[in-house]
């Protein structure tokens, strides 16, 4: 049985890669080798990726990026719970994900650290000192520190957005400035090693962007083709600017209570009496001396 990861490597390059006359029943064309020869393709890697899950996270924030990141051959994707054991963690709509590691068992050195968003569950995670301590520690050595949707609020509470351009869900994007960030209205925003995605569905664009950075654009394009990711919404909308005003006003009002709670969030003070400093350059986060 061929899984999607193998299928991606072997077949998504397409028939255009095969020179004329090379494909036959007697001598099948080596699609894997042809794909590997494409410019800028890194077929195999050893990335260590930690994706945080916590009660009440939004499933698509996680599952969209997970689909693309887990398709990278050789990459190890850890689903890291902030709970005390490996029991399934329920999302905000009840879809449960089985974690693979606890915070304590997560590798110390990561290629990529990620947190999804949500609403009440996100607020709880942003106020949880154990979760914040984990993020600060792993961020100090990770190559990339990332989030989708309101997951940026958790990074902000950990002090990981200070001095950075970042995005989040439209309902709270402007509030990123209370964590020292510069809010940006875009699907995916990178500033140094901090990469943030906008709301929910932007996680697909976010995931493909990361695959492109880690394995090259042809690899990401092949993954995109395998997923048949070619958005064609049935009607205009999805942003406040393109949604009919009566709907936009109603939805904005529905988020009022959540936004009011977000306004109360601040960067948590560091433990141990050590002052907190923002990222130094593009790849360091460390206490000031």
What do you see in this structure?
The chain is an alpha/beta fold and 289 residues long. Helix 1 crosses helix 8, helix 4 packs parallel to helix 6 and helix 7 (202-215) packs across helix 8 (217-226). A hairpin with a 3-residue loop joins strand 12 and strand 13. The chain is globular, with a radius of gyration of 20 Å. 31% of the residues lie in helices and 15% in strands. The protein is built from ten helices and 13 strands.
Number of beta strands: 13
Terminal Cα span:
55 Å
Order of helices and strands: HHEHEEEEEHHEHEEEEHHHHEE
Shape assignment: globular
What ranges have pLDDT less than 50 throughout 5 or more consecutive residues? 10-24, 277-289
Gyration radius, in Å: 20 Å
Helical residue percent? Answer: 25-40%
Biggest sheet, open or closed, and with what strands and sense? 7 strands, mixed
Major β-sheet strand ordering: 5-2-1-6-7-11-10
Q: What structural category arises from helix and sheet content?
A: alpha/beta
Question: How much of the sequence is in beta strands?
Answer: 5-15%
Number of H- or I-type helical stretches: 10
Mean pLDDT across all residues, rounded? 88
